[in-house]
Amino acid sequence: MHPAVFLSLPDLRCSLLLLVTWVFTPVTTEITSLDTENIDEILNNADVALVNFYADWCRFSQMLHPIFEEASDVIKEEFPNENQVVFARVDCDQHSDIAQRYRISKYPTLKLFRNGMMMKREYRGQRSVKALADYIRQQKSDPIQEIRDLAEITTLDRSKRNIIGYFEQKDSDNYRVFERVANILHDDCAFLSAFGDVSKPERYSGDNIIYKPPGHSAPDMVYLGAMTNFDVTYNWIQDKCVPLVREITFENGEELTEEGLPFLILFHMKEDTESLEIFQNEVARQLISEKGTINFLHADCDKFRHPLLHIQKTPADCPVIAIDSFRHMYVFGDFKDVLIPGKLKQFVFDLHSGKLHREFHHGPDPTDTAPGEVGLLFIFQ
């Protein structure tokens, strides 16, 4: 039999304090460190992942670490399943290949991923525990509005792009694919759904998805692909939600730059919708195959006076078409030339081939300009 051990009063108080501290101190969540071996598996299996791309030498990265960890603890209590929400980090000095893969150029950068797919909009809110936690709560909220009566369709905001899914039941593979797409594209489109008896009048040939474009005159479009095929469904809805020619503003300029693609920009006066329509039509006609290699954009000449000065233009010269390669800006010829078949396409091909960059530094290629003629491209920095 072991002899009893009696603690002095100070030792007893210390032991009780340690016990209370152990019981009531919350368990902190370990932030997942990503590397080339685990990044795909971890991100692909996470419903939502917030990744902190950092550099140890960066003071702001060091300041964010404890905030990021505390926000992770808060969210982990609300979403305890390990795959619901993942807070992860990448040391960009140790894993420069990962930083390059996701086009990280500043630290710290917070990127959101859904099932392994990086969202184009990085987190730009406050760097506080509350702001980060609120951001994740928002990402976990249902992005789809349920329709209780088909009469609600008549009151939709037709200034938005609306995607409506009609399903027999919510617990189905068709709806799960629709929900997954909505989680990714909810910033670009309004998503709605109807089920059962409510949706029955619209389900003459089974579950279906309808796109209602902005305005009251444009006809609806029906999705004809496989409802359970995520890639096909996503590509169709993305094509409807994200216009081929997007507007660039001071609010989204940095975000578009981070996509890493050069810009083909139409500068036009805001009220000049005719030039914009011509540009949109010619981009769709000549350059649809170039989607993914260059961003097609339009900008308000009045608001973008300073960028126009870089190419020696003013709002009085608009409409103006230019390419911004992030190294130089190259100006297309006369705007009316955009209607010449293949002219706009050749302009973009000359960017990819390096011709525009070469001519910027060395002048027009000898074979491109006949003696006494002026070249079609006027290129300025």
From TrEMBL:
It comes from the Eukaryota. Residues 18-141 form the Thioredoxin domain. Residues 1-29 form the signal peptide. PROSITE patterns: THIOREDOXIN_2. InterPro entries: ERP44, ERp44_PDI_b_1, ERp44_PDI_b_2, Thioredoxin-like_sf, Thioredoxin_domain. Forms mixed disulfides with both ERO1A and ERO1B and cargo folding intermediates; the interactions with ERO1A and ERO1B result in their retention in the endoplasmic reticulum. Directly interacts with ITPR1 in a pH-, redox state- and calcium-dependent manner, but not with ITPR2 or ITPR3. The strength of this interaction inversely correlates with calcium concentration. Mediates thiol-dependent retention in the early secretory pathway, forming mixed disulfides with substrate proteins through its conserved CRFS motif. Inhibits the calcium channel activity of ITPR1. May have a role in the control of oxidative protein folding in the endoplasmic reticulum. Required to retain ERO1A and ERO1B in the endoplasmic reticulum. This is Endoplasmic reticulum resident protein 44. It comes from Homo sapiens.
